[in-house]
Write a sequence for this structure.
């Protein structure tokens, strides 16, 4: 767990970016209220997502991760919400687009967060070979698009672990080279295919909700995915009073004691 602790502290220590282009922010009225509130560009809460994007963006071009898996151990740890916020933060900083792919075929949430329908998406591409250009949607945020999951299929595990899925990953990475692509995957405890997906992507961001996942389960998932593949850890819903104590000890002054995700 030492790597996880360091990853969490590194996220908190990330240098505040003074040149963030706040004028690029646009909260669409269709968005879920939680997303509209959390992405207030002036809030310390959303600043934490700008800090999370820092180690992703500011690496040498040959080392910058272009395809990133966002996952968790258990359901309801907030990975979809984190994925949406990180996508918005990335789109504000990138010259081109960020793209979100909802791979949680069992319990898709991302289309709803952006006020979109989930009628068509990834499932249609995998099953019926519908062209990606017909399935990718605008979110209302400039430079951010989304590929919804589509209607939940009867065989989500088989689809996500299929050769067709691997071909899709290669295709979308090749086709949209100007974008950082975020893949929201099912929680590992209900979907063994998460580890299969991770092998074909550049890195993983792990979302851990305070009080939800056991320490040994988190460590097991890190070992399964490979510690070297973990780009960062998001510690979600940490109690405010404990966060204040932690930040005081570390002499942090980023305002995270009031905003955590």
């Amino acid at each position: 767990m030492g790597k996880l602790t360091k990853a969490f502290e590194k996220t908190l220590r990330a240098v505040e970016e003074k040149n963030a282009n706040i004028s690029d922010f646009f909260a669409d009225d269709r968005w879920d209220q939680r997303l509209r509130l959390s992405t207030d560009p002036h809030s310390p809460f959303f600043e934490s997502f700008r800090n999370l994007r820092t180690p992703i963006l500011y690496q040498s071009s040959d080392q910058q991760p272009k395809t990133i898996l966002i996952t968790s151990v258990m359901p309801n740890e907030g990975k979809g919400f984190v994925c949406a916020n990180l996508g918005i933060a990335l789109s504000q900083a990138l010259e081109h687009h960020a793209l979100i792919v909802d791979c949680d075929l069992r319990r898709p949430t991302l289309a709803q967060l952006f006020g979109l329908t989930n009628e068509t998406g990834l499932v249609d591409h995998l099953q019926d070979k519908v062209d990606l250009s017909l399935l990718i949607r605008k979110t209302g945020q400039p430079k951010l698009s989304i590929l919804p999951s589509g209607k939940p299929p009867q065989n989500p595990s088989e689809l996500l672990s299929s050769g067709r899925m691997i071909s899709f990953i290669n295709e979308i990475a090749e086709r949209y080279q100007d974008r950082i692509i975020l893949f929201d995957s099912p929680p590992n405890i209900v979907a063994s295919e998460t580890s299969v997906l991770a092998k074909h992507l550049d890195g993983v961001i792990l979302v851990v909700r305070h009080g939800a996942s056991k320490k040994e389960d988190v460590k097991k998932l890190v070992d399964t995915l490979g510690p070297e593949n973990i780009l960062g850890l998001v510690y979600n819903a940490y109690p405010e009073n404990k966060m204040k104590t932690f930040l005081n000890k570390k002499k942090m002054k980023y305002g995270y004691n009031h905003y955590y995700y």
Notes: Confidence is low (pLDDT under 50) at residues 7-28, 243-261. The longest helix spans residues 79-93. The two ends are 21 Å apart (CA to CA). The beta strands are 67-72, 98-102, 137-138, 144-147, 180-184, 203-209, 230-236.
